Amino acid sequence: AQSVTQLGSHVSVSEGALVLLRCNYSSSVPPYLFWYVQYPNQGLQLLLKYTSAATLVKGINGFEAEFKKSETSFHLTKPSAHMSDAAEYFCAVSGGGGSNYKLTFGKGTLLTVNP
Amino acid sequence: DADVTQTPRNRITKTGKRIMLECSQTKGHDRMYWYRQDPGLGLRLIYYSFDVKDINKGEISDGYSVSRQAQAKFSLSLESAIPNQTALYFCATSDFNRGPYNEQFFGPGTRLTVL
After folding, report:
1. How many residue contacts between A and B have a Cβ separation below 8 Å?
2. Is A107 close to B107, i.e. CB distance below 8 A?
């Protein structure tokens, strides 16, 4: 069984401030982890993914995430927020082995960037 | 460009009507998925298909049916629509040959309103 918890359904930051979106996962097998972004009226776009190659993962648009097994976390960060980062962000986990087809999503975090 | 397309993009229908949502992809992927998104609930899997002859129920399949007409086409049907099926529906694809990471690619979504 696998699950994802995103802490905070809504995060608000000022332009230029640090962005931190939290994700904790539960998985009975070594997980693959993803962050997707959804801009208004669009589908989901992959930001980055953890596939066990490196614990610090860099993605598009300056985002990165660090896999911490001891904390079962995969938090998303960006050093300096831009207005264009305003969107909803989803963390997802994929189980390994025979269940690797299945992505389980968190409930999402809406990021607001204030000028 | 290779893409995942969904038709229609918006649909308003009445309770009891039959409705079909269509998904096509030019990515050459073998796996296709249907999700629904509700505010505050994230994405939930309705059905998934590994190939034309392999269709499986997801976590919320009641009230829905699907058809995989070809590798590139996967349709979702609501035989008798009800108001609580009002949601944003996404089609997604993935490629088994890309490995176990199961990165999924999403269409732009269909916003369905059932009155």
Report:
1. 55
2. no
Alpha-carbon distance of B74 to A113, in angstroms, equals 37
pLDDT in tens, A5-39: 999 999 999 999 999 999 999 877 778 899 999 99
Per-residue pLDDT reduced to its tens digit, B64-110:
999 999 999 999 999 999 999 999 999 999 988 777 677 899 999 99
Which residues face A76 on adjacent strands? A21, A65
B21 three-class SS: strand
- The answer to whether the beta carbons of residues B48 and B61 sit under 8 Å apart is no
Radius of gyration of chain A (CA): 14
Measured in angstroms, the CA of A85 and the nearest CA of chain B are apart by 18
Give chain A positions within 8 Å (CB) of B61.
Answer: none
Inter-chain residue contact A44 with B106, CB threshold 8 Å: yes
Kindly identify which residue of chain B lies nearest to residue A103, measuring between CA atoms. Answer: B102
